[in-house]
Design a protein that fits this description.
By secondary structure, this protein is mostly helical. 42% of the residues lie in helices and 0% in strands. The protein has a domain at 9-38. It has helices at residues 9-22, 26-38, 64-72.
């Protein structure tokens, strides 16, 4: 169906540039834009976190000095670092 619409000069220039860059016609741009605005978005299923678990004895309690030492071991910050021996 043919129809006439008024579009600002600036918007029409941008639309034509967009079409030229993508190798599509102005008609294709208008029709795809109308479809995108008028067709309801497809319902997405809600996000569900997959169940997971851990093996072992659980968390081991350490004091901050021990945690810091374990974190920096092998990275130049701990006394047990191989480079310092």
């Amino acid at each position: 169906m043919k129809t006439t619409v008024e579009i600002s000069d600036h918007l029409l220039r941008r639309a034509k540039e967009h079409c030229a860059e993508r190798g599509i016609s102005l008609r294709e741009l208008i029709e795809s834009s109308l479809r995108a605005m008028l067709d309801p978005p497809k319902a997405k299923s809600p996000f569900r976190l997959k169940p997971f678990g851990f093996r072992g004895e659980g968390q081991i309690q350490h004091d901050w000095a021990t945690i810091r030492e374990l974190a920096y071991t092998g990275r130049g910050g701990a006394e047990t670092d191989d480079h310092n021996t």
